[in-house]
Amino acid sequence: MRDFLDLPALTGACGNIILPGSKSISNRVLLLAALSHGVTRISNFLESEDTDVMQAALKALGVSIQKREGVFWVRGSKGKIPNQQGEFFLGNAGTAFRFLTAVLSLSQGHYVLSGTPRMHERPIGDLTDALKQIGAHIQMENEGFPPLNILPFEDNQNRTIYLKGNVSSQFLSALLMALPLTQNAYTIRVEGNLISKPYVQMTLSLMRTFGVEVESENNIFKTPANAHYQAVEELKVEGDASSASYFWGLGALLSEEGIFTEGIMQPSIQGDVAFLDALTQMGAKVTKEKNRIGVKKGSFPLKPIHIDANDFPDAAMTLATLALFANGTSRITNIASWKVKETDRLEAMQNELQKTGAKVETGEDWMSITPPQTLKTLSVATYNDHRMAMSFALLSAKIPLRIENPECVEKTFPTFFKEWEKLVQFVPVIAIDGPSASGKGTVAQKVAQQLGFHYLDSGALYRLTAFFALQKNIALTVENEEELAQIARNLPVTFQNGDIFLKGEKVTEEIRTEEMGKAASIVAAFPKVREALLFLQRTQRQLPGLVGDGRDMGSVIFQNATLKIYLDASVTERAQRRYKQLKEKGFSANLPSLIEALQKRDEEDKTRANAPLRHQADAVWIDTEGLTVEEVTQKILALYRHQ
After folding, report:
1. What predicted TM-score, i.e. pTM, was given to this entire model?
2. What's residue 605's pLDDT?
3. Can you give the pLDDT at residue 517?
4. Which of 45, 123, 145, 225 is the most exposed place for a label (fewest CB within 10 A)?
């Protein structure tokens, strides 16, 4: 399991993506099929953490669900839950928890529903209060919140239910899908503002597909008596519009040719397609076909937007990150539901957006975002929320960044980052590795200069870390590893015209001494220092491109480098070069001692536990013996241009 994923800055994006099935549709369809008479075959069903939770619970309740050649076959239970007792851990799957709460509360069994600590913080009282109005028996340790102890339903003859609509539309959807199990007719009166109405319309549409028609008008919903769900012979789940929003946003930011998503029908039953109207307002170009939607770059910077996101709260998070690319302040309203999602998204989005230098203000149900003059690179805390990870990926359109806990996307889109990589073009990087004194630093600077690229001297970063630490009287010992790592994380370094600056002061010569070389070897052995410098090095990959030299540029730092080079020469040749350099600078030098020192350094580099020096199979090996710096430079330039 990865702790983080570093995303390089991008130069462009284009292509097609076949969308995974909608999570919202998948879980609704799975539940309705499970309650039906007959067998339903479901294709393009989303396989993710949330749907896995629903599947596992339904199977434990006695419902037959089988997968054959990518198609799910669900044999319905004819409106009766086969198993009358069970304890279910439902993780942080909000749809599964709420839908199952309603269905099991109107059944004749004893059930316990629990989840993650965050799930136990998410309110469910409006739903349980509504169920209790008609005879459900639900016990809670913390009133209004999970976990739940559900007892058999006892019909009290009340046929009118009052439900608050301002926390989650899933409460209403859960009631609507569960009520037909009672065979009674009910009237639901929604009090106050009903948020996320399109999700309720989705529920009504799918119930109709399974044979149950609900009357609705002005927040009053009437379910019929003696209704039952009828299996659908074949049902294909529409592509997920919430997931599509990230790719549509990518198209708006970077794609001249367009990003095209396949799998969402026109018209769609998903409210998040309204996100496309917002993109159009911001200046993007949108095209719609029956089963295909394309978005490409229009006006840029984007236009700021003031929008009511009640109909698409999930995709509104994508809008919030896109607002960083606008030329003014954007305001998103009607997003109070963010606070009761996988995390408090209102707070989480504010925290992470502010890291970029943006001015972010929030209220009970709104957020305003004023982008900074220059976006700061950042490490994004995802709060174990899949949508945080996916929406912030868009920032790589401009800057490199780190996504913490990237596996959180397993909740709804396990292959998100793989699909992302298929569509994007990264800022080019040439990674030049090799042993000490192989000429890689001099050559790398020349290549960078001729291409107009940025230059990264990775070895200098370790020297600088040691130099800065010693200036602060911090010993280079394992006891101080965390403190040394902290220095590395915040190293105020700049590379300019072949010189190295620390806090604005030139230190090129000071860090090139043999003493600093030895000190660099010491700090390089500390894993925490290497991890800290890993992100710093990757953030240097910015437009128009980067040339980096070191000992693990291609093997660790830039594993997907555009071109990998391994420079080498015999130890005698390298010692003679070092001897000549030292003599030219007026230092005393002894050739046999230099040979011995390089042999020792080579052995240390090749056998160290962390990132040992080695020639990668995908790196071009160049023997520099007998070649001038200019000849090696031209070889590398030719290889790069050929690619």
Report:
1. 0.91
2. 84
3. 83
4. 225
> What pLDDT, in 10s, does the model give residues 146-160?
999 999 999 999 999
CA-closest candidate to residue 91, choices 62, 120, 65, 63: 120
- Asked if omega into 267 is within 30° of 0 (cis), the reply is yes
User: CATH for 429-642?
Assistant: 3.40.50.300
pLDDT score of 275: 97
Distance of alpha carbon 289 from alpha carbon 280, whole angstroms:
16
pLDDT score, position 525: 85
Whole-angstrom Cα Rg for the chain: 30
As a whole number of angstroms, the distance between CA 349 and CA 542 comes to: 25
From the candidates 129, 314, 365, 552, give the one annotated as an active-site residue.
314
Residue type, 206: L
Active site residue 52: no
**pLDDT per residue as tens digits for the range 417-442:** 999 999 999 999 999 999 988 999 99
Q: Which of 44, 49, 56 is nearest to 19 (CA)?
A: 44
Structure tokens at 420: 């992302």
List the structure tokens of 125: 């009282």
Given a cut of 90, is residue 589 above it in pLDDT?
Answer: no
Q: What is the 3-state secondary structure (H, E, C) of 190-251?
A: EECCCCCHHHHHHHHHHHHHCCCCCEEECCEEEECCCCCCECCCEEECCECHHHHHHHHHHH
Residue 583 pLDDT > 90: no
For residue 609, pLDDT over 80 is answered with no
Nearest to 434 by CA among 624, 567, 547, 597: 567
CATH 3.30.70.1280, applies to 4-19+238-426: no
Fold of 23-234: UDP-n-acetylglucosamine1-carboxyvinyl-transferase; Chain (3.65.10)
Q: Where are the domains of the chain?
A: 4-19+238-426, 23-234, 429-642
